[in-house]
Amino acid sequence: MTYWVYILASRRHGTLYVGITNCLDRRVAEHKAKEVPGFACKYGVDRLVWSKPFGEVTDAIRFEKRLKRWRREWKVRLIETDNSYWDDLYTAMMAPWQERPSSWVPDTSFARSGMTPKWEGKL
């Protein structure tokens, strides 16, 4: 089972909330629906801005407790490392999966790599 440590925000550089769950999509949906009374509901914190999976619950709990003790500036830096615009990652997580067109095509049978970048007709 996967356990998630996550950070929610009210807006960019807004109020932060650190939590842990074994079902990230369900938990964030609960926050968005204001089904969870407490801090996050009171301050409108429902934008998923960062998350990290763990294979063991003890590792996730240990990291969550450590993350809660971090200075705010460290948490902001952690968020902005992968999500500089503080986008709501829940939106992308819940969007239907779509295969993106590849910019690579199969090589001829004589090529070593097996794949070559598509030629766009530009030099």
Please explain how this structure is put together.
With 123 residues, the chain is of the alpha+beta class. It has a single domain, classed as GIY-YIG endonuclease (3-Layer(aba) Sandwich). Helix content is 35%, strand content 22%. The protein contains 5 helices and 5 strands. It has helices spanning 24-32, 39-42, 57-69, 72-82, 89-94, and strands spanning 3-9, 16-21, 47-54, 104-106, 115-117. The protein has a 3-stranded antiparallel beta sheet, with helices on both faces. Strands 4-5 form a two-stranded antiparallel sheet. It is globular and about 40 Å long. The mean pLDDT is 86.
Give a short synopsis of this structure.
The protein has helices at residues 24-32, 39-42, 57-69, 72-82, 89-94; strands at 3-9, 16-21, 47-54, 104-106, 115-117. With 123 residues, it is α+β, with helices and mostly antiparallel strands. It has a 3-stranded antiparallel β-sheet, with helices on both faces. A two-stranded antiparallel ribbon has the order 4-5.
